[in-house]
Amino acid sequence: MSKTYARKVGLNRGKPRLWLEGKILLENGFGHKVAWGVVRPDSTPHPEWPSLYLIAGPGGKRLVAGSPDRPVIDINSKELLAGFTPGEEVVVRVIGEGHLHITRKVEG
Prior knowledge:
Layout: E1 4-8, E2 10-12, E3 15-21, H1 23-26, E4 35-39, E5 51-56, E6 62-63, E7 65-66, E8 71-76, E9 89-96, E10 99-104
Antiparallel strand pairs: 1-9, 2-3, 3-8, 4-5, 4-6, 5-10, 7-8, 9-10
């Protein structure tokens, strides 16, 4: 069974923002200054269910910010977070070491 975390999409300067920090990153391969990338699938089974994948690795174009004790990933982008609404809850699912999958929380 994969581990999941609940987070809320925020709003910063008129753009949606997803902030991840601390334990969720430390326990899953996203330590301070680790390179990571983000993939937004071109199509999903249900377009109303936006999806993002965060992948840690040397090919990533971004670095985990923060500090060694409290790493931070701050995604503040209309393009990457298209389909997510500020204030809504999302699910961050660990799908493997250095691989996180972010989707809209589905009630039910």
